[in-house]
């Protein structure tokens, strides 16, 4: 971090600033230029809050060199992180194929779907027991009964599952059942939930918020990692733009950007990104082609009867075709 001092900065406030910086644990070197004086900070500056610092009247402007996230950054950890979920790994060349319904509806539905998607190439299945719905009158999920159904489907299929946690109060119960815990788009900046996830020993699937920048996504991952849980998989699931034809806009540019800035795996959810089942396969192929570490896809045995997100759900046989074509792309790249 470099702090440019005002040309007329008072010696007293510069001295105060240096003291403040020393207290924050960084080494300070003052450079006297021809026109400008500056302070160069050496050490871990991730804990320095620029807004707070800027109250000091001697500061002209502050430039960050280190990213505000540290544990999540590629600079801190060069090798790709590989997250293990049951027998399957994500990241470092290992691709995740996660498939299943938006929400858990019945034990028959989940056992059928988990076995079907496994036979078609899924490495994990999904299903929501706690559903974040826009309307309070929409189906809210089966809650703990839904988690028990997911556990029964794991028992039957042998596949691990990911399911969403919506609040700190239900974290313990979700953690007890789930192989991987999802923090949904709407909760990406629920900092209490992120802190609780940091204390967990279960891998976390962190979805990008509807309006979150890449830096905000990585800062949320940093929250979880700062708590001690480094098993984080990121997920691009579409962001809000001006276009309303699709549910959201899939931001594929974030995949190579994450690969550059972070060592964490990133997967893509084309279902929530587009909201239309017809677009799920082409977007999946594109996601894998740009380097995504996997896909999370909504699959329902009878989409027109789905209690949630039927319009974007693939029938199982369509998921099978998708896996085959995506595998061909994987061979090419
Ligand atoms: C989901 O995966 O079911 C879900 C609600 O996703 P998102 O948080 O991305 O909207
Ligand atoms: Mn859904």
Q: How would you sum up this structure, described in words?
A:
This protein is of the alpha/beta class and 333 residues long. The chain is built from eleven helices and 14 strands. An eight-stranded parallel β-sheet has the order 13-12-11-10-9-8-7-14. Strands 2-3-1-4 form a four-stranded antiparallel β-sheet, with helices on one face. Strand 8, helix 4 and strand 9 form a beta-alpha-beta unit. Helix 3 packs parallel to helix 4, helix 6 packs across helix 7 and helix 10 packs parallel to helix 11. It is elongated, with a radius of gyration of 23 Å. The structure holds phosphoenolpyruvate and manganese (II) ion.
Features:
binds phosphoenolpyruvate; 333 residues; Alpha-Beta Plaits; binds manganese (II) ion; single chain; 2 domains; TIM Barrel; alpha/beta
Summarize the structure.
With 333 residues, this protein is of the alpha/beta class. It is built from eleven helices and 14 strands. The strands form three sheets. An eight-stranded parallel beta sheet has the order 13-12-11-10-9-8-7-14. A four-stranded antiparallel beta sheet has the order 2-3-1-4, with helices on one face.
């Amino acid at each position: 971090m470099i702090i440019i001092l005002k040309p007329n900065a008072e010696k007293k406030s510069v001295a105060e600033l240096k003291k403040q910086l020393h207290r924050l644990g960084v080494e300070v070197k003052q450079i006297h230029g021809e026109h400008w004086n500056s302070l160069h900070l050496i050490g871990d500056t991730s804990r320095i809050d620029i807004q707070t610092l800027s109250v000091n009247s001697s500061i002209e402007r502050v430039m960050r060199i280190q990213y505000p996230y540290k544990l999540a950054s590629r600079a801190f950890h060069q090798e790709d992180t590989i997250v293990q979920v049951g027998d399957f790994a994500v990241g470092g060349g290992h691709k995740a194929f996660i498939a299943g319904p938006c929400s858990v509806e019945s034990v028959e539905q989940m056992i059928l779907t988990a076995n079907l998607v496994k036979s078609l190439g899924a490495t994990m299945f999904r299903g929501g027991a706690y559903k974040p719905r826009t309307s309070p009158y929409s189906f809210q999920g089966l809650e703990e009964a839904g988690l028990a159904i997911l556990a029964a489907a794991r028992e039957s299929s042998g596949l691990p599952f990911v399911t969403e946690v919506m609040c700190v109060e239900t974290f313990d119960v979700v953690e007890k059942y789930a192989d991987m815990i999802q923090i949904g788009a709407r909760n990406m900046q629920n900092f209490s939930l992120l802190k609780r996830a940091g204390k967990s020993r279960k891998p976390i699937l962190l979805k990008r918020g509807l309006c979150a920048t890449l830096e905000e996504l990585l800062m949320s991952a940093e929250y979880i990692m700062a708590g001690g849980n480094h098993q984080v998989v990121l997920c691009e699931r579409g962001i809000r733009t001006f276009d309303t034809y699709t549910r959201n806009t899939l931001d594929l540019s974030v995949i190579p950007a994450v690969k550059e800035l972070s060592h964490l795996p990133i997967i893509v959810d084309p279902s929530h990104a587009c909201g239309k089942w017809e677009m799920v396969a082409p977007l999946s192929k594109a996601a894998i082609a740009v380097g995504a570490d996997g896909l999370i896809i909504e699959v329902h045995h009878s989409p027109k009867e789905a209690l949630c997100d039927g319009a974007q759900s693939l029938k199982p046989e369509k998921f099978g075709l998708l896996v085959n074509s995506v595998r061909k792309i994987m061979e090419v790249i």
